[in-house]
Design a protein that fits this description.
homodimer, alpha+beta, 4-stranded antiparallel sheet, 3 helices, globular
Chain lengths: 99, 99
């Protein structure tokens, strides 16, 4: 069965004194994630007016590929650091492309 | 002077009874915006679990290009409809690409 691509916008908000540390943890995710099967886009952004707002803009070939990413060792390792680094709950939203 | 590209994540939240109408207004923005000078990406997404959450993922060549878009006739026409269609304040965030 052909699955449609999934777009993700994931916001990761840092504690104000942990911005540099979180930034390093998130940058380390990019290369291994881009090597994953079915990863079409995985870009890490930082808000120009609020450096605690990091946002991933992602595209995955299928739900299967996304689920595999969510269970990857590199993502689990990063998520293990989140309780000490994040100011808010991780906000992951799944989207369809309209246009 | 060379300006660096700007990434935008813009969330547009519909009133629950206006989702179809807002969707049409937003779709109508895509073609003319993609024809604007300096528009590198302008994708319209809809949240898979919350159809009132529309999100634009954008990339602009420069701040100048973005400001020109914000003053475009097609964006002003859409924004004129927002008071009757939106449930929340428009949330436009500007980002740098880290990776």
């Amino acid at each position: 069965m052909h699955e449609k691509p999934i777009r993700i916008v994931a916001r990761v908000v840092s504690r104000t004194d942990k911005t540099g540390e979180l930034r390093s943890v998130l940058i380390a995710l990019v290369a291994p994630t881009r090597r994953e099967t079915g990863c079409l886009c995985y870009d890490l952004l930082q808000n120009q007016s609020d450096p605690t707002d990091f946002t991933f803009v992602e595209e995955w070939e299928s739900n299967t590929a996304l689920e595999s990413h969510l269970n990857s060792d590199h993502l689990k390792a990063a998520a293990g650091r989140f309780p000490e680094l994040l100011a808010e709950e991780l906000d992951i939203r799944r989207y369809d492309t309209i246009e």
